[in-house]
Design brief:
The chain has 681 residues and is of the alpha+beta class. It has helices spanning 55-74, 113-118, 125-144, 195-198, 205-221, 230-239, 255-263, 275-291, 296-300, 314-329, 338-353, 359-380, 396-416, 422-454, 461-481, 484-513, 518-522, 524-545, 554-580, 587-605, 613-635, 642-658, 661-677, and strands spanning 13-14, 17-25, 29-36, 42-48, 83-89, 100-106, 110-112, 147-148, 157-160, 165-167, 174-175.
Length: 681
């Protein structure tokens, strides 16, 4: 699993594994970074949260979790995330429905392919093609073991820093002779489903090849082959031929059009016979493209290093010192953009590579032209809530990063060749000055924002959220500077602020459900918008607050869960009333209210409150049952009812986000009727 910490509370150990932090959270599980106490090896631990399982989902989710464990232990391939072990956490305070199962998996240091697709710097044709050829190698191995993945998509392909892919999440895979996945089940992600799966037919290896073709199309064309609402995408997959990928990326060589469109053939028999054949065709296209532009592939796969200085020789260390000093002294009058920051760091690295030369000269330049002037600039331009944009330096964080880099470089230089303690003391004082100033301003501003939050019934949530971003910047600066004591204090303040946000959300929810005229006065859409803003803010507060105070007040969590349950009941009853009245209200309003309910539930599920596990299970079951009722009401609508189709799309998206695969399956099965009927989207 990818390595990227999120600041939430966690147990000390799970089975024989020592837990060290949280890598991420899904709708029904938490993934921890841990160490195997028997071997000392790092692992990713995926723990299923039983209290979030509604009764109707319980058996199906546990079956899929167990299947992921069995398949993971069976598949040993360099491009598949390896499962090392699985077990059950028998005793964990507050867990509902018995023990919590866990998987111990290979720790993948990288990120999901989806993040590469969303990046401003997409992968090159060479990189994307080579990456997907390796994924096809993994599929060929899995298929040879009788395993059909059934959910190939960018979020299930983890990419290491060297662009080596790892295929993950075999939770809905089809195993030979297995009865866990029946013909006609609509599980997976519609945008990547093969036509035969949408028609309710049995999936085979060629269904995975279609999904891999969609991912490859997205990578190389830099657009989706099928787009629109869920029903529209289904209809396109069933009946519409996608445009050649080169239409989206004119620089894409012609051989790739043929390779990808063959994988996207509507009939399985018209696709590649196996993953190995697909991989071979893709590699031939890559080779043909390479032969037409000699030298390019290696350049594409190599970081640009032309401007990075080589190890400095004795004769040019002096020139580097002059250039570094001149660049540092120009900073007060010229913004430090990313390019200039990179140039400065290159100069610093070049000088350091040559072991610094004259350490006294090194110390003088870094202190007199760098650290001390930068300390003044940083403290004078510190971002403040409600400050006018004209009064802020847009390069404030780059200034902080440069200060930290100079401090580290000076420390290394003085370690290698001490020249007295005066320079080290001056550097320490400059850093302490910044840390003290930032910490003081952090607490001043957090107090002001707290008063704004609790002032009156309807604070300006959007302005508050923007101001909070500036608090986050201050905290990031403390982290960059290594100011551990001040950082720990700021995390405690963040967590206290998060508790206040929880109480504010609870107050708003109660105003909507306890006979107050909040619904009439503000309108549901405005209420939900405020709640969503607050919830997003509180989630970030928890992530930055970490474990500073050891947990959240149980009374605040319990009150929030109870208020969320009452609000959800009222909202879903009103939505069902709209459906019964023939679709009163707009589909957009319906979708907005569903999103608000989903946000409420997801936020409640992330609160670490063991004593509230039973309440969370009740909330999950209640909301699950309400949404299932909505799905039933909408699923019987005639195919001419476009409003019902739009509402089902919103419901399927909500269910998918909450991990309610059974509700999602009901909604997608209903949407399939519109797609199969060929009703225009």
């Amino acid at each position: 699993m990818p390595d990227g910490a999120v600041g939430v509370l966690h147990p000390d150990s799970i089975g024989p594994y020592r837990v060290e932090g949280v890598l991420g959270q899904g709708a029904m599980s938490v993934v921890y970074r841990a160490t195997d106490g028997r071997t000392g090896l790092p692992v990713a631990l995926k723990l299923l949260r039983g209290e979030l399982l509604a009764a109707a989902e319980h058996d199906a989710v546990l079956a899929r979790f167990g299947r992921e464990a069995r398949i993971g232990l069976k598949l040993d391939h360099p491009n598949i995330v390896r499962v090392h072990d699985h077990g059950t956490l028998d005793v964990m305070p507050g867990r509902a429905l018995g023990g919590a199962p866990y998987l111990a998996m290979e720790l993948v240091r990288g990120r999901e392919l989806k993040q590469h697709l969303d990046s401003d710097t997409p992968l090159t044709v060479r990189q994307g093609g080579a990456l997907m050829a390796a994924v096809l190698d993994a599929l060929a191995f899995a298929h040879a073991q009788g395993v059909i993945h059934r959910d190939i998509k960018p979020a299930n392909i983890l990419v290491q820093e060297d662009l080596t892919p790892k295929l993950a999440d075999f939770g809905i895979a089809q195993i030979a002779a297995s009865d866990l996945t029946q013909t006609g089940d609509l599980l997976g992600t519609p945008a990547y489903m093969a036509p035969e799966i949408l028609r309710g037919e049995k999936a085979d290896a060629r269904s995975d090849l279609f999904s891999a073709g969609v991912v490859l199309y997205c990578l190389l064309a830099r657009r989706r082959p099928f787009s629109g609402s869920v029903a529209t995408v289904m209809q396109q997959i069933l009946f519409v031929e996608p445009p050649p990928p080169s239409h989206g990326n004119p620089d894409l060589p012609a051989p790739f059009d043929r390779v990808i469109l063959k994988a996207l053939a509507k009939a399985p028999a018209d696709r590649y016979a196996c993953a190995g054949e697909f991989a071979e065709a893709l590699r031939r296209a890559l080779a043909a493209a390479d032969s037409g532009r000699a030298g390019t592939p290696a350049a594409e796969l190599t970081l640009v290093t032309a401007n990075r200085p080589a190890a400095a020789s004795a004769r040019d260390r002096a020139a580097l010192a002059v250039a570094l000093e001149a660049a540092l002294r120009a900073i007060p009058g010229q913004p430090l953009d990313a390019r200039r920051l990179g140039e400065l760091l290159d100069l610093l690295e070049g000088w350091e590579t040559g072991h610094g030369g004259d350490v006294r000269r090194w110390q003088s330049v870094i202190l007199d032209a760098g650290l001390e002037p930068l300390a003044g600039l940083i403290t004078a331009a510190t971002p403040a809530p409600r400050a006018a944009a004209a009064n802020l330096r847009r390069d404030w964080m780059p200034l902080v990063r440069l200060f930290a880099a100079l401090s580290r470089a000076l420390s290394r230089a003085l370690t290698r060749a001490p020249v007295g303690t005066a320079g080290a003391e001056r550097a320490r004082m400059a850093a302490a000055r910044i840390a003290f100033d930032l910490s003081g301003r952090f607490f001043l501003y957090s107090g002001e924002l707290n008063r704004v939050l609790m002032d009156g019934d309807n604070p300006d949530i959007q302005m508050l959220s923007l101001d909070f971003l500036r608090l986050e910047i201050l905290q990031h600066a403390l982290e960059e500077l290594g100011a551990e004591a001040e950082l720990a204090q700021s995390r405690g303040a963040m967590l206290m602020f998060a508790v206040q946000v929880i109480r504010k959300v609870t107050q708003i929810l109660r105003a909507c459900t306890d006979g107050n005229d909040g619904l009439a006065r503000f309108g549901v859409a405005i209420i939900l918008a405020n709640i969503e803003e607050l919830i997003v803010m509180a989630q970030r507060l928890f992530e930055t607050g970490g474990q500073a105070t050891g947990g959240l007040p149980q009374d605040a969590v319990a009150e929030f869960i109870a208020a969320a349950g009452r609000f959800a009941t009222l909202s879903v009853e009103e939505l069902r009333g709209e459906i019964a009245a023939g679709g009163a209200g707009t589909a957009e309003s319906f979708a907005a209210r569903l999103r608000g309910l989903g946000q409420l539930y997801l936020f409640a599920s992330r609160l670490t409150a063991p004593d509230c596990a039973a309440s969370m299970h009740s909330l999950s079951t209640m909301l699950h049952d309400l949404v299932t009722g909505l799905a039933g009401d909408l699923g019987n609508a005639p195919v001419s009812d476009t409003g019902a189709r739009a509402r089902l799309t919103a419901l399927a998206e909500m269910a998918g986000g909450l991990g309610w695969s059974e509700v999602e399956r009901i909604a997608l099965t209903a949407l399939r009727r519109w797609a199969m009927a060929g009703v225009a989207a």
